[in-house]
Amino acid sequence: MSQDTLVLASRSPRRKHLLEMLGITVRVQPSAVEEVRRTGESPEEHAIRLAKEKAESVPGDLVLGADTIVVLGEEVLEKPRDEAQALEMLLKLQGKTHQVMTAVALKAGGKLYSACDRTAVTFLPADEAFLRAYVETGEPMDKAGAYGIQGFGAVLVERVEGDFFSVMGLPLRLVAELLARAGRPYHFTR
C-alpha cells in the first residue's frame, strides 16, 4: 500500500491500533450506521451487510468498514446494552465453543470489496462470581459477545481456532487481501 490514508469507519481503538501496527496511515471517521439485524438475515449476511454499509456511509476514496458478531448456536450476541445483559451473555458462553464472525469491506476507487472471517473460540468454564467481576471492569460493554480477548477477557478463553486478530475485530490478512484486490497492495514499511 502506498502513502494513501485509509479512512476507518469505526470508533474501535483496537482496529485503529492494528492497522497502525502494520504501518498503515489511518484517519478515523466513525460510521453512523445502525447495527440492527434484519429478519431472515443469517449472521454472516448481517456482518457483511453492516461492514459494507459502514464503508459506503463514510466519504473518502479508501474507506474500511468492519463488523464483528459472536454467534452461539443460532443466537447472535452483539454488544451488550447493559451489565446485566453482558453477564447473561458470558454465562451462556462459559465452557462452550462459539463463532466470532468479522466482516470487512473496503471502498476504493468507487468499488466495494468485502470478505468475512469465521473463528471458533472456546471459553473455559467459569462461575458467576468470576464473570460478574469481569463485567464490573467495564471491558465487556463495547464488545460483541461481551468480552475482549486482547484484555482481561483473555483469561476466559481456553482455545482459539482461526484468526486471533479477527476475534479482536479486524482480520488483518483479509484487509491485506482486499487492498490487493483494489489494486493497492500492502507493502512492509520501515
Q: What is the CATH first-level class name?
A: Alpha Beta
Q: What is the CATH-assigned architecture?
A: Alpha-Beta Complex
Number of domains: 1
CATH topology: Maf protein
Topology order in helix (H) and strand (E) letters: EHEHEEHEEHEHH
Description:
- With 190 residues, this protein is an alpha/beta fold.
- It has a single domain (6-181), classed as Maf protein.
- Helices cover 31% and strands 26% of the residues.
- It is built from six helices and seven strands; from the N terminus they run βαβαββαββαβαα.
- The protein has helices at 13-21, 43-57, 83-93, 128-136, 164-168, 172-181, and strands at residues 6-8, 26-28, 62-72, 75-77, 97-108, 111-123, 157-161.
- Strands 1, 2, 3, 4, 5, 6 and 7 form a seven-stranded mixed beta sheet that branches.
- β3 and β4 form a beta hairpin.
- The longest helix is centred in the first third of the chain and has 15 residues, at 43-57.
- It is globular.
- The model has no long low-confidence stretch (mean pLDDT 96).
Characteristic key phrases:
alpha/beta; Maf protein; 7-stranded mixed beta sheet; 31% helix
Layout of strands and helices, then pairs:
Layout: E1 6-8, H1 13-21, E2 26-28, H2 43-57, E3 62-72, E4 75-77, H3 83-93, E5 97-108, E6 111-123, H4 128-136, E7 157-161, H5 164-168, H6 172-181
Parallel strand pairs: 1-2, 1-3
Antiparallel strand pairs: 3-4, 3-5, 5-6, 6-7
Helix pairs in contact: 3-4
Offer a quick outline of the entry.
The protein is an alpha/beta fold and 190 residues long. It has helices spanning 13-21, 43-57, 83-93, 128-136, 164-168, 172-181; strands at residues 6-8, 26-28, 62-72, 75-77, 97-108, 111-123, 157-161.
